[in-house]
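Q: Protein A?
A:
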Amino acid sequence: MNSIIKRCAWCGDDPIYQAYHDHEWGVPCHDDDKLFAMLCLEGVQAGLSWITVLKKRKAYYEAFDGFDAVKIAQYDSRKVDELMNNEGIIRHRLKIEAIISNAKAYLKIKQNQSFNDYVWGIVANHQSQTPLINHPKDINDIPTQTQASQALSKQLKKDGFKFVGPTICYAYMQACGMVDDHVIDCTYKRK
């Protein structure tokens, strides 16, 4: 007997989007480097659709040395110019420079604590590092930002991160599984 898979409407029928929805979105991530990479990618997404970034994600990993923060923090103006000519990524100078700035801020945070503890510690349920489980009936019930994303944005900005407004931070929280916003009839909803 085949079971019918129900997904959140936002992922549509694009296989890349569906794979992301099914295997990444809302799944708790506690790996510092993955959390850093996702924060950078969410910042790149500002003003664009997430599918645009997903389709370019591999190129971003290649262009940005696998999101190795130590290497990225050393990028100079020549490297920025090289990235501006890379057709595989979104060629937006401020977003490229934000990734470099974010690498430096990330490394500074890591001098005192894991990035996992830092970001998860700002959102609710942080002591157990368990996700907030919401119960939206449909995508219209999913907020674009919350008090937790506003707090995360405020702290990230204070610590030198860029392209981390509260809406980007909420998308980041969803992407990294800090919050589960799968609609209630979605096959991938946490019970």
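Q: Protein B?
A:
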Amino acid sequence: MRYDNMGQKVTIERIEEVPAESRVCHYDELGEAAKATLPALTNDGPVAVDGSVAAGFRDCDLVKYTDYYEISVR
């Protein structure tokens, strides 16, 4: 799924296998804005994502929530 706001794109995709070199963040390690938004990002509907949310994902390749999700912020 992709969401675009102010030129930033966040891509989130559920994955089955976790590469050994991945930086994995657990849900409880995310910033408050990212934690508040992650459940909506896992749904199919559009979600507006602001810069504080995108910043909360920048240090992670993957997030462990209900499953492992690959995160890309551009």
